[in-house]
Amino acid sequence: MTAAFQVLLQVVGRTALERLRAAGHAALFSVGMLAVLPASLRHPSLVLAQVYVFGNRSLTIIAASGLAVGCVLALQMYYALLPFGAVDNLGLVVNLALVRELGPVVSGLLFAGRAGTALTAEIGLMKAGEQLVAMELMAIDPRRRLFAPRMIGGLVAMPLLAILFSAIGIVGAYLVAVPLIGIDATSFWSIMQARVDVLRDIGSGILKAAVFGAICMVVALYQGAESEPTPQGVALATTRTVVVSSLWVLCMDFFLTAVLLSAP
Amino acid sequence: MNAKRIEILVGGFVLSGVLGLAFLAVQAADLGRLRGGDTYALTARFDNIGGLKPRAPVRAAGVTVGRVNAIAFDGGIFQGVVTLDIDENYRFPKDTAAKIMSSGLLGDQFVGLEAGGEEANLADGAVIAQTQSAVVLENLIAQFMAGQADRAAAPANAGAFE
């Protein structure tokens, strides 16, 4: 009996220690990334290339999703507001939902899926092809040369993508609300204009998007750098990137919303 | 893909992001006042401004002619002082009345201007003399209850004389 119990304790202890070590390793990696970020300012062309890779290449999915989410939101909110006779507020509700919440979060999830996986696969394959080791042998720090520009690129691209998501979503909602459902166009825009605050609502959305961009990039880089240098290892790292990024984005969304909403 | 093409594309991406932000800020938020024309200021004092907020519309005959600029409390006369920005093209007579009205039960409150009959118009910075405060639900209920109490007391008094 006691032998089995001992084995159980051993397994639990080993797992806990392993998880703790991994968490610490990831934290050290993140802090190390912060330290090398200023180095990327010396190579703006690298950063620009990464903004293209993460930003421009994600435009299609962000635009399409924004349009779809905006249209659906208009429909759902219309039926939600109808019993209260408050359908004139449809524009306001859709705007706040998009700009404060859905813009940053959905863009973050899509970004993690599209840009994060691409980044993890790229870094993982570089590691598998021993390119990272080769760089270190040439006294080039791969973190400054490779990781930092990608991190800044994602950090710059993400808020822009969230803004575009929200803007296209509002246009989509307008197209559904006014021509399709028949809501008054003037009240759609004017109530929105009266109640939406640029700093509090749009600003908080941009801040959230920047944080989500940083999270996605750090997770993707870490998973890529720590992946096993085999095809299966890279594939596993890619899926882990999506899962971990998405969970982090959703958790941080709650904390950020709580903090931002309680601010005066 | 050469560097120049990448720079152009990224520039286009960043520009579209900035345009999206401008669209959100101007069309969909409260920076729209930058698009407006010239305005002149009028002041009105109310006993109770109710739920009036800055940027609320100012309407005359139902048409929006301006926005509420600022709301302050005057400690000297213990009244709310509301500053209105009215479009330059619209001038109102000196005996115009300002009322705080609601656009529907769940709607926003706005300032309604009812023009008077005087020939001279309100100048920039003038004070609107006649004002009507917002309807406060509690006062209405109190009035209703008092009315009910009176009606209940009246037949009892009449019966006492017989």
Structural write-up:
The complex is a heterodimer of chains A (264) and B (162). Chain A is mostly helical and 264 residues long. Chain A has one domain (50-262). Chain A has 9 helices and no strands. In chain A, helix 3 runs antiparallel to helix 4 and helix 4 packs antiparallel against helix 6. The longest helix of chain A is centred in the middle third of the chain and has 40 residues, at 142-181. Chain A is globular and about 65 Å long. The model of chain A has no long low-confidence stretch (mean pLDDT 92). With 162 residues, chain B is α/β, with parallel strands linked by helices. Chain B folds into 2 domains: 1-35; 37-142. Helices cover 30% and strands 31% of the residues of chain B. Chain B has 2 helices and 8 strands. Chain B has helices at residues 3-27, 137-160; strands spanning 39-46, 57-60, 63-74, 79-87, 97-102, 109-114, 126-128, 130-132. Chain B has an 8-stranded mixed sheet with strand order 7-1-4-3-2-6-5-8, with no helix packed on it. In chain B, strand 2 and strand 3 (63-74) form a beta hairpin. The longest helix of chain B has 25 residues, at 3-27. The termini of chain B are far apart. The interface between A and B is medium-sized, with 39 and 31 residues.
